[in-house]
Amino acid sequence: MLNIEREECQRDMKEPIVWEAAVPDVTIDEIFRAQGADYSKRSPRPKVIELNQRILQEAAGLVRPTAIWQEVRISGSGEQELFLENGLKLTSKLLARVAGIADNLILMAMTIGSFLEERIAEYNEAGQMLEAFTLDAAGSTFLAKSSVRVFEQIEARYKAEGMTATFPLGPGHSYWSGLNDVRVIINFLKADQIGISLTETNLMVPRKSLAFVMGVGRNLPDFKGKTHCDFCSLQKTCNMRKLGEKCS
Ligand code: SF4
Known about the structure:
Blueprint: E1 4-7, E2 17-21, H1 28-35, H2 46-62, E3 66-77, E4 81-84, E5 89-91, H3 93-99, E6 104-111, H4 115-125, H5 129-159, E7 164-165, H6 180-189, E8 197-198, E9 204-205, E10 209-217
Antiparallel strand pairs: 1-2, 2-3, 3-4, 3-6, 4-5, 6-10, 7-10, 8-9
Bound molecules: iron/sulfur cluster.
C-alpha cells in the first residue's frame, strides 16, 4: 500500500488533494527492464551492475513523488467524449467506452519532481551518457511504480464506499489522440502547485510527470482485468508495460 506521507487537503472534493508519497522500492531488474535490456539469457557484466546500483541509489535520493487529484462529476458522454461538470470535456473513444457510465471521474497528475532531471542534464553536460541514460530509466521506473501505488490507494478509498474504479488511462498514449487533454487535466487540478507546468505543445515539465483519469461508480463495465496497455499499439515493444500497466 502507498505510504502517504502528507495529505495537504481534506477530501471534500471541492479542492484538489495533494499527496506526498513515500519513495517506492525499485529493483535493479526493474531498471534493466525500463532500459529495454534483456538479461534472461546472459548475466549483465559486473561493471553494468555496479553502474546501475550506483545510479539506482542516487535516483532514490532525488525523487519526490507527489500526486494531485480530484473527483469530478460526469455530466454526459458521447461516442468519443466525456462531458464533465464545469463545462470540461475530454475527448477519447476509449475513455467514453471505459468510463461513459461511471458516476464520477478522478483527474490525477503526478510528478517525481525536477531534481532527477537536473542531474540528468549535469551528466549529459559532462559527457556521462551512460549515467544519464540509466538515471532517466530509473526516473521512469520510480514514476511508474509511484503512480501505480497512488491509483491503488485511490481505488481502496472508493472500494470502502462500495464503489469500483476503472483502470487508469490518460492522454499521451497511443489510444488517446493528441495532448490537448493534458492541458485540461493539468489546468483543472492547478497542478502547478506540485510543480508541473506545460510547454506550448502540452508537454509536461518536469518530463517525469503523468496526467491520468479513472472512472469511479457502482455499476461500471467489467473489463476483465484489462489495463490501458491492452488498448495501446505499443504494447508489444514498450519497456514500461510490465512496470506500469496501470499507468506508466
Ligand atoms: S504499452 Fe507502454 S506506452 Fe502503451 S499504455 Fe502501456 S505503458 Fe503506456
